[in-house]
């Protein structure tokens, strides 16, 4: 079976292949002979009564006109992946030729994986504006490790976009543009209310062509395509192609019911099997990214395995329903709620649990600190346990690393390495410049090692963290520069450092908050 492939990140040429196309009409024409209707031998009409018109909209023109201004194209520039040089044949290893390659090509000698300096990868995708402030929902695999993201609106305007956050587990990402005015936007609908056979409209930027609308129906829901914990997708036959990823899937009311994410195709093009993240999940993830910069998920602290009929009988259960707890982590929420290996979880929050992913999904959908009701079977009897969920240990570590990275990157992107001010009274505050990167904007503006930063933007500086936070706040506010008050010896002066991205510097260092 072909593997599902991401719909974007594949750039096609603007020139389309030209050639003849044969159009097959799916309607048969009933020609009536002159002089009246044809009659059967029994005297009845030879033509069946016309079929009733199919239910649904006559067309989607009004719907497209209403929602199209909120659909955007997303262009991404990032550094190309590392490349591995071909291996030398075994008989040439250890010879003068290998030494020659090492001396003249350094780390790029055969067999070594090295980055390609100066190379840029370009990706194209889609997205939609979810509020008038300019937040844009797209997919994580569209933006990847972006160095620069540009959003093109339906009216042709282009804006640089800031990556607010991204969630690889659900492949949802959130961007922000500052247009200086409220932007047209769409709202989410209830994806749980979707029925197989309902009309849907997919919009986006396939093959980089620009705003495109395609229509189809909901082919299935709850599809699993091997995407991990949140493997629960809407399937549609509305044509989705490379570049559509991140674009919205609308119902006939103009509500976003899904985020187009992948296609199943042996050729990479549309064959009528596309997948979308359900809107109810996408809306929650986008809200977390907007409010916190990362997604908060609950943690139970158990290992699970499926429960088949033989194992159920061995555990004294009448039915094989539920999932088996194989192990419980010491000190975890499950341990504190007295869950044990051998317990069978048959329901979570009142909903039946039939597979491990059902329980894992219910836990992940809840926030840390909330209480989840679990129905368990133990020794042939059922009982209900209230479990207060925790935060996954890896998420706590990731959040700490992200805070430290952002604090360091705020000043680091300007070419400054800062340290607490030594020897001065606490009342003086300030952060000392420990190093200035050669060629950076800080060096160009005359800053030196030993200078002390007393104020950054509108806030006094008590230490390096204050400078980093001020720089990040200025970037998020869209300011072109930040003013630093500098003390050098007995002299004081203000210096303005530009915040615009410079050639070769990564915007992601200070502008992403993925929390991954």
From TrEMBL:
GO molecular function (one): serine-type endopeptidase activity
Keywords: Hydrolase, Periplasm, Protease, Repeat, Serine protease, Signal
Binding-site residues, substrate: 141, 171, 243-245
A matching Pfam family: Trypsin_2
Record GO cellular component, one term: periplasmic space
Residues of the PDZ domain: 301-380, 406-478
Principal subcellular localisation of the protein: periplasm
Protein's cellular compartments: Periplasm
Active site positions: 141, 171, 245
Domain of life: Bacteria
One GO-annotated biological process of the protein: proteolysis
Cleavable signal peptide: 1-26
Protein's UniProt keywords contain Signal: yes
Keyword hit for Protease: yes
NCBIfam families: degP_htrA_DO (TIGR02037)
Protein's name in the database: PDZ domain-containing protein
């Amino acid at each position: 079976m072909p593997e599902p492939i991401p719909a974007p990140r594949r750039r096609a040429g603007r020139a389309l292949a030209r050639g003849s196309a044969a159009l097959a009409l799916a309607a048969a024409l009933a020609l009536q002979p002159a002089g009246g209707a044809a009659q059967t031998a029994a005297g009845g009409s030879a033509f069946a009564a016309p079929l009733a018109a199919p239910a649904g909209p006559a067309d989607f023109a009004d719907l497209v006109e209403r929602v199209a201004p909120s659909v955007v194209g997303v262009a991404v520039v990032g550094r190309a992946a590392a490349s591995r040089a071909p291996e030398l044949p075994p008989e040439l290893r250890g010879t003068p030729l290998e030494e020659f390659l090492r001396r003249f090509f350094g780390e790029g000698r055969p067999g070594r994986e090295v980055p390609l300096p100066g190379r840029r990868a370009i990706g194209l995708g889609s997205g939609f504006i979810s509020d008038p402030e300019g937040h844009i929902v797209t997919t994580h695999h569209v933006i990847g490790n972006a160095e620069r993201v540009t959003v093109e609106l339906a009216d042709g305007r282009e804006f640089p976009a800031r990556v607010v956050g991204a969630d690889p587990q659900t492949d949802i990402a959130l961007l922000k543009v500052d247009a200086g005015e409220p932007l047209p936007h769409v709202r989410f609908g209830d994806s749980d209310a979707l029925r197989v056979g309902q009309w849907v409209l997919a919009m986006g930027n396939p093959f980089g062509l620009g705003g495109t609308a395609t229509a189809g129906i909901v082919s299935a829901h709850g599809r699993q395509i091997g995407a991990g914990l949140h493997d629960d997708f809407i399937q549609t036959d509305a044509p989705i192609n490379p570049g559509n990823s991140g674009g919205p899937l609308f119902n006939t009311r103009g509500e976003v019911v899904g985020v187009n994410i992948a296609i199943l195709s042996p050729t990479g093009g549309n064959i009528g099997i596309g997948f979308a993240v359900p809107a109810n999940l996408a809306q929650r993830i986008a809200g977390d990214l907007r409010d916190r910069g990362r997604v908060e998920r609950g943690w139970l602290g158990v290992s699970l395995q499926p429960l088949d009929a033989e194992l159920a009988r061995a555990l004294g259960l009448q039915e094989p329903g539920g999932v088996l707890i194989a192990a419980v982590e010491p000190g975890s929420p499950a341990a504190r709620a007295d869950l044990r290996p051998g317990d069978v979880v048959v329901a979570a929050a009142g909903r039946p649990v039939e597979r491990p992913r059902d329980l894992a999904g219910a836990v992940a959908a809840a926030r840390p600190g909330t209480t989840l009701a679990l129905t368990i079977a133990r020794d042939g009897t059922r009982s209900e346990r209230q479990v207060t969920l925790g935060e996954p240990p890896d998420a706590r570590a990731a959040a700490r690393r992200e805070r430290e990275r952002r604090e360091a990157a705020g000043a680091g992107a300007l070419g400054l390495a800062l340290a607490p001010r030594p020897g001065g009274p606490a009342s003086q505050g300030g952060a000392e410049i420990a190093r200035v990167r050669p060629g950076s904007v800080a060096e160009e503006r005359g800053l030196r090692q030993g200078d002390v930063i007393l104020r950054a933007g509108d806030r006094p500086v008590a230490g390096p963290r204050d400078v980093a936070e001020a720089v990040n706040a200025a970037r998020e506010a869209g300011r072109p520069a930040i003013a630093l008050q500098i003390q050098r010896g007995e002299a004081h002066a203000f210096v303005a450092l530009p915040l615009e991205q410079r050639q070769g510097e990564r915007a992601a260092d200070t502008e992403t908050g993925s929390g991954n």
